[in-house]
Structure formats: structure tokens, C-alpha cells
Amino acid sequence: IGALTFALFTFCFAARAGPQTVRQKRNPGVKRITIAYLLNGNEFKSEDATLNSVVGKWLLDVQKQAQLRLKQDIKVEIEFKIGSFNLTNEEFSKNLQTWISMGSCGSESLMHAGSVLGEIKEESTYWPSQPHIICVLTKLKLYQDDFINLLGYVRHRTLCYTSVPMLLTYTPSSNVENAGNILSELVLNSTASGSSPVPKEYFDKCNENQFFQHQYVLPSRHRSVTQNGEEERSTDARIGTTLALRQSEGTRRCFSDV
């Protein structure tokens, strides 16, 4: 199963015993996406892992903006439901430290996006219960392939069919609208089509289950996906490039991994 130890019916990267949930009224026609947030335990404290904290309130505002942007872009009303909001546990926090590189041309420390997402995707396949999205929140900017200073990253295109890992950078000093737009783009890039336009019917699948009890397989009309498959990996650079160019935060890589 790998380096991490998994406990039954918990999100096993989380340090806390039980998830904090947000109860929301069901509205007909609304497409609901469940997200488990994991705060980097090396950067955040236990008091940050509550929706009443500064971090929690920021994230709720970001979600609202992302919902507005998605409704504007694809004409679908999406509602994010927070399934859990926790710190990463000690072991995964240590792993996160190994995926950080020091910049060599004026760049600050950066986290390698692909390594984080690959670890979460692989290990989460053993969870008995999985949300639609597992999002790691970090204060660091990201790098992938030839791009640095990314504020968000996603590589898997299986949203609503299997759990999708994401990375989002916590940027409280910047415009919440920008962070919300990044989250909305991450959601679009995690669909089978990879961007807008996304058929309205696509998100109906998310409404069937708030959590996956087993791995789903994409229908044959969509791109086939296998764990760590060659085709899946080949999309990394293009998705990373899209985020870098559209957010104007990503720049060409100019540093050596350490």
C-alpha cells in the first residue's frame, strides 16, 4: 500500500481524527462537487484547519468566486461541498518537504506539483471512501516541467468518475477573485474534456455520489485512464502550460532541483 498507513473510513493524509463537514440544502438542478481539503502541516497550524479561521473564510470566498466563474463560463450551477478540512498528518507532511526545490534565479522555494498529485492519486485508490476532489493547500508556489510560480495544478481528468487530486496556493494578500478563477480552471481541467465547453450533463455523475465507494471507470466515449498511464502523464505539460499562461504567474523554469 506504500509508505502511508490508512485508517478505515478516514481521509488518511489528515492529521485530525474526524472531518469537519458543511451541511448545505439541496437545490434541484445544482451540481454538487465534494472537496476534501488538506492543509500543508508544515505551513499551517491546527487552528487554521477550521472554517471559522482566516484560512477557512478565505477558502469559502474562493469557492464562491469559482462557482460564479463556472456558471459564467459553462452555464452550469455548481456547488462545492467541503467534505473535510484538515491538516496533513506527520508522515505526509514530511513527504511534502522532500518535494520542495530552492530557486536559483530569484525564485523562492517551489513545490513539485506532479510528485504531490501522483502520491495522493496512488494512495487514495486504497481509501474505502473518496471525495470528488482532494485539494492540498500550500503557501508555496508550484513548478512542473518547464514552468515555475504556478498557483494551482491538476493532472488527472476523471472528475465525477474517480477522485481527482489538486494543488492550490494560499494567497491571502492577492485578489480572492484571482484565486477563485484558478480553482474554477482547475475544475474544468479535471473533466474528461479538459476545458470548456463542458456538457451540462457531465456533472450529473457527481450528483450520484458525494463520495466514491470504489473506483469508477470512464465510459468508452471518453479518454481511457489508467493509474500512472502513459496517456495520462502526457497531459501534464499542456495543463500546466494553460495555467501558467492564463494566470500570468507561471514563468519559464530557471533553477536546479535539490
Automatic annotation (TrEMBL):
Keyword Signal included in the entry's annotation: yes
Domain of life of the source: Eukaryota
Protein name in the entry: Putative 26 kDa salivary gland protein a
Keywords: Signal
Organism the protein comes from: Ixodes ricinus (Common tick)
Leader sequence segment: 1-17
